[in-house]
Amino acid sequence: MLSGHGTAHNVGEGYHRPVALLPLNPDELLSTTRAVRKRLDFSKPVPDDVVRECVSAAMQSPSGSNMMTMSFVIVRDEAKRKAIGEVYKNCYGMYKSMDGVYIGSIDKGDAAANQQQKRSAESADFLGEHMGDAPVLVIGCTQGARLDGAPAMMSASMLGNILPGMWSFMLAARARGLGTAWTTVHLMMEQQVADILGIPFETVQQVCLSPLAYTKGTDFKPAARPPVDSIIHWDGW
Ligand SMILES: Cc1cc2nc3c(=O)[nH]c(=O)nc-3n(C[C@H](O)[C@H](O)[C@H](O)COP(=O)(O)O)c2cc1C
């Protein structure tokens, strides 16, 4: 439930719309922003102003040369959502046949981790069928020449111009009682989605597709992760 514990201040220009925030401290927000799929409430509309607040939060993230080359394509139109949902479903089918890549085919090495992996796979399978049912789809994009074969400095910069913003969007959504799920499989057929939405394919690259919906309940927990020292390299690799 939204508690009204805090209200969003005006993070962008042109509007002041206090939206009730969940009572989460920063660490709780960071550790409980999960990939939400089965607990998305497809029946509840998402107001445009809530989307604007999340995009405003995203715009506070860093960007190369202080240029705003990130874009968010917000899809509310039902026919377009369904069409994108079909593309996602087809791509997800291809992804599912990729042994060792598909989330459900990866052996994590112990029973508890494999159990968690199985739950994640079932959740991902669900979204494979239902992406188009979310009341809003969000596509994070970055602008510039297409990344295929680009030097590391170019590709890292172009991706870096949307990835922090997209994650900020997701955190802002979670803070407002909405769920998201980072997905990339539709990029196997990126041009089809570009055509549905009129995105200029040669100069605007899609990076992430997420459903956006209020969540059924707001009690999300931190996920089990490997020990923190397993990914830290102090003073060198
Ligand atoms: C780069 C990237 C690509 C992803 N692609 C997909 C995807 O195409 N479909 C999907 O359902 N989830 C996708 N995910 C979400 C992961 O599957 C998810 O993070 C994982 O299930 C763990 O769940 P959690 O984020 O709640 O801890 C992606 C995540 C990342 C970071």
Can you give a write-up of this model?
The protein is of the alpha+beta class and 237 residues long. It has a single domain, classed as NADH Oxidase (3-Layer(aba) Sandwich), CATH 3.40.109.10. Helices cover 36% and strands 13% of the residues. A four-stranded antiparallel beta sheet has the order 3-4-6-5. A two-stranded antiparallel sheet has the order 1-2. Helix 2 packs across helix 6, helix 3 packs antiparallel against helix 4 and helix 3 packs antiparallel against helix 7. The site of flavin mononucleotide has 12 residues, from helix 4.
Oligomer category:
single chain
Major β-sheet strand ordering: 3-4-6-5
- Rounded Rg: 18 Å
The named CATH superfamily:
NADH Oxidase
Q: What is the string of SSEs from the N terminus onward?
A: EEHHEHHEHHEHE
Q: Any ligands, ions or cofactors bound here, and which? A: flavin mononucleotide
**Count of DSSP strands:** 6
**What's the architecture in CATH terms?**
3-Layer(aba) Sandwich
- Summarize model confidence as the mean pLDDT: 92
Low-confidence stretches: 1-10
Compute the number of helices.
7
Shape: globular
* Structural class based on helices, strands and sheet pairing: alpha+beta
Strand content: 5-15%
CATH topology: NADH Oxidase
How many discrete structural domains?
1
- In this structure, how is the largest beta sheet organized? 4 strands, antiparallel
Question: What would CATH call the class?
Answer: Alpha Beta
Determine the N-to-C terminus distance.
44 Å
Helix fraction, binned, reads 25-40%
